[in-house]
Write a structure and sequence with these properties.
Length: 321
């Protein structure tokens, strides 16, 4: 992992190695954090953050669901992120904004603990591997069910909630699979440990609805829009477990993984990525890289890093080798 030299923390840039917290940080003990996973791409317009405003809005909403007020405005977080990318010199990178309850009183009531914010940027390749993006991954339905709205908040991208994904991920990896698919409490298909899921049967695309306890994925929303623009029939509906293995095509989407075909589930072959998966994967890649005018609305260009010759701040703070 190649990281930037600096991390934005609570309003100022600090050296990467100095971005530290106290061991009694509330979030370390009780999982009281919310975060985002965002990507910036090298696009036809220069380096640009994909669906930046949507990610910052979800960060604020995730925090709200856990009674945290962001101490910075959405615009301040946006500017800090753009500046972080500029300073890093990266033409494409992963961005990890984190909002967490800091050092203060111990105990479960976090309301007197400060709400702290950090933004880190680093280079990170395809989360499930380039081979997986090309030929598809092997997945296993997890023995763990996705967190339920009866005990947690699936709509919030909250740190503590990811223990659920971590258990599913470890189980699938130790079982020899690349990813886990979690069912919801009713036994309906929910999502991957860090991706939303789509199935294709007879040319029709389906993906679980919000009521299936999914994270309201931003890549998911993009794929729904792109598929509709391509004239594909796409519905949000409950998906039974058997529909996974009986599908013609299955794919997963997420910011870290991007669009990844699934070629095998529970040791039953689905096959090499099919026509719909390939079409959407390529259209999505085009959108991410600014190659489709209709989706330029999703790009937040990093000032000073567009190809029109604006000053490039990367020379001021060189990235680490
Ligand atoms: C549990 C879970 N579901 C779905 C997603 C996909 O969301 P997005 O497309 O916004 O990255 C993620 C990734 O953030 C995730 O962690």
């Amino acid at each position: 992992m190649n990281n930037a030299d600096q991390i934005w923390m609570n309003g100022e840039f600090v050296a990467w190695e100095d971005a530290k917290v106290h061991v009694l940080t509330h979030a370390l003990h009780y999982g009281t954090s919310v975060f985002e996973g965002v990507r910036a791409y090298d696009t036809t317009k220069g380096t640009a953050v994909f669906r930046h405003e949507d990610h910052i809005r979800r960060l604020e909403e995730s925090a709200k669901l856990y009674y945290m007020d962001l101490p910075f405005s959405r615009e301040q977080i946006r500017e800090a992120t753009l500046e972080s990318i500029s300073r890093s010199g990266f033409s494409s990178c992963y961005i990890r904004p984190l909002v967490f309850r800091g050092h203060g009183p111990m105990g479960l009531d976090p309301e007197d603990n400060p709400v702290e914010v950090s933004i880190a940027v680093f280079e990170w390749g395809a989360y499930l591997g380039d081979e997986g993006k090309q030929h598809g991954i092997r997945a296993k339905v997890s023995s763990w069910r996705r967190i339920s709205p009866q005990s947690l908040v699936p709509h919030s991208k909250a740190g503590g909630q990811y223990l659920n994904s971590v258990l599913a991920k470890i189980e699938s990896k130790r079982g020899g699979y690349e990813e886990a698919i979690l069912l919801d409490e009713r036994g309906m298909v929910c999502e991957g440990s860090g991706e939303n899921i789509f199935v294709v049967k007879d040319g029709k695309i389906a993906t679980p609805p919000q009521t299936a306890s999914i994270l309201d994925g931003i890549s998911r929303k993009s794929i729904i829009e792109i598929a509709a623009d391509h004239g594909r029939e796409i519905v949000e509906r409950d998906i039974a477990r058997a529909e996974l293995t009986l599908a013609d095509e299955v794919f997963m989407v997420g910011t870290a993984a991007e669009l990844v075909p699934v070629r095998e589930i529970d040791d039953i072959a689905i096959g090499e990525p099919g026509e719909v998966t390939r079409e959407l994967q390529s259209a999505y890649e085009d959108a991410l890289h600014g190659r489709t005018p209709a989706y330029e609305k999703w790009l937040d260009v990093v000032p000073g890093k567009d190809p029109a010759g604006m000053p490039d701040l990367s020379s001021a703070v060189p990235s680490k080798a």
